[in-house]
Every structure is written in structure tokens, then in C-alpha cells.
Amino acid sequence: MVQWNDLNQESKNRWEAIAEFWDDYMGDESNRFHRELIKPYTEELLQIEPSHEVLDIACGNGNFSRRLSELGAKVTAFDYSSKMIERAKLRTKEKYNIRYTVIDATDSTALLELGKGKFDRAVANMALMDISDLSPLVRSLHELIKDDGTVVFSIPHPCFQTPKMRKIQETEDLNGELVTRSSIQTFDYLTPEPYQAIGIRGQSVPHFMFHRSLTFYFNLFFSSGFILDGYIEPSFNKETNDGKFDWYDIPAVCIFRFRKV
Where do the Methyltransferase type domain residues begin and end (predicted)? Predict the structure, then answer.
């Protein structure tokens, strides 16, 4: 049986292979998913103030790092893909107060070198599900974050986006009216499982994702000295419903805020 930690290097290799493709696709503004579901609600939970020092975990091409800087924060951003960091630097103008660096989130020694008690906030946008071992990161965050500081992160909703999940759309004639309903068929929610996924159509190789239940995330942060004090399950605006399957009444993601105590 393959251990999750054994997949870390292969996971990194695959992100190196697709980094430029993802950067080209996301661009400076990212996609609708991030613009409508992730960005506004993450900002709401973060409550950034101009004096804040913020750690952007698995920052990708730096889209949100630059937004944090625009809000007045001093940002340290890292990713384990050197190609992603190269692209982030190319997209970042001198006006942004951002330090980019290459760090593997499973390397607690490298993480702690960023500065114990340095950060007011930490954020990870749609990234923790890509990390094979979260324990070193979360334990390190408790040392990196100031007292009463917060960690905000988003992940695909593990209740509805399980491995092998199926999207279902059914049309039914109800009293002379055609009604279309969307639903989800999920499998093995309670079973932790690594799997391969295509995040953007056309990427050359699938990347690894690591399914974990909500209980796993709660217990990991609770045992590391955090409390949950914010949680949002955003969905797309129904008014934009074009009749195709989309995430209107079923949340595609969930966003957490944990506070250091």
C-alpha cells in the first residue's frame, strides 16, 4: 500500500509539469470559481488590516498574494513549485509588498525559518487538499501565527466532492412543467483517500488530491491549539443559472477560519 508521504515528491513533480499551463489559464484575475466563491468570502473571514503580516500558503501564481498586498498587508508567499513561484514573480510589479519563496509545506524546519510569532494571518486558497501530510504545516502555523491570529483556508467541500463523485442532472415532468434538478452522488466520505484529478481540462497530467473528512480537519487544528470561529459554504448565484449543472444549492467549497488560542 502506498503511503501518502511517498506521493509528496510525485505530487510536486506533477505540479511542476502543469504550473505554466495553470498560470496561463488563471492569469491575473483567476477563474470564475475563485472570483465568486473563494476570493470574496476568504477576504471576509481574513479581515485584513494594513498593518498585518500575512502568510500565503501554496500561493500558486500569486493571484491572492497580490490582492492581499492591495489591501495593505505585508505578504510572505510560498509554493513548492519553483515554476509557480517564477510565474508569480513575473506577474508581480514592484508596487506589491510581497516576498515569494519556494517551500514545501511538509517541511516544518523550512516553515519555522519564516519567523515564529511573525504573522497576524495565514491563508491557503484551495490548497490543503493537495498536500500529502498536513500535520507539519498545522503544527508550524501555531508557532508562526501571533496570539489571537487566524488561519483561513478553503478546500473542495469534502461532503460533496469525494473521489469518484458523480454529478447528476434529472429532468422530470411535474404537472405539465418540466423541472430540472441537479444532485450529487458521493462515495466513501469517511475514508481518507489519495486520488488523481484534472482541475482544468487540457492539463497534461492529473495532479494528486488527498480526500479527508471534515472531522479530520477539525481535529487536526483543535489538537494544534486552534479553535474554529468562522465557516462559510458559498455557492454560485442562482440568478446566473443557465440550466446547466452548477453549484447553486450544493456548496462546492467550504472556507474555515481557525483562531490561535
Answer: 55-153
pLDDT digit string, tens, across residues 113-168: 999 999 999 999 999 999 999 999 999 999 999 999 999 999 999 999 999 999 89
> 145-156 and 74-79: which strand pairing?
unpaired
Alpha helix positions (H), the chain:
8-26, 32, 39-46, 63-70, 82-91, 108-112, 135-144, 214-223
- Judged by DSSP in three states, 166 sits in strand
Using only C-alpha atoms, what is the Rg of the chain?
Answer: 19
CA distances from 57 to 6, 176, 177 (A): 21, 52, 48
CB within 8 Å of 220: residues ≥ 6 apart = 134, 135, 138
Cα dist from 49 to 54, 72, 85, 167, 232, whole Å: 10, 7, 25, 40, 21
Residue 48's contacts (CB-CB under 8 Å, 6 or more residues apart) are: 54, 68, 71, 72, 73, 121
Torsion of CA 76, 89, 113, 30, to 10 degrees: 50
Name the nearest CA neighbour of 7 among 105, 101, 130.
130
Residue 4 CB coordination number (10 Å): 16
- The grid coordinates of residue 62 equal 500569486
Reported pTM: 0.94
Q: Nearest 5°: phi and psi at 2?
A: -75, 130
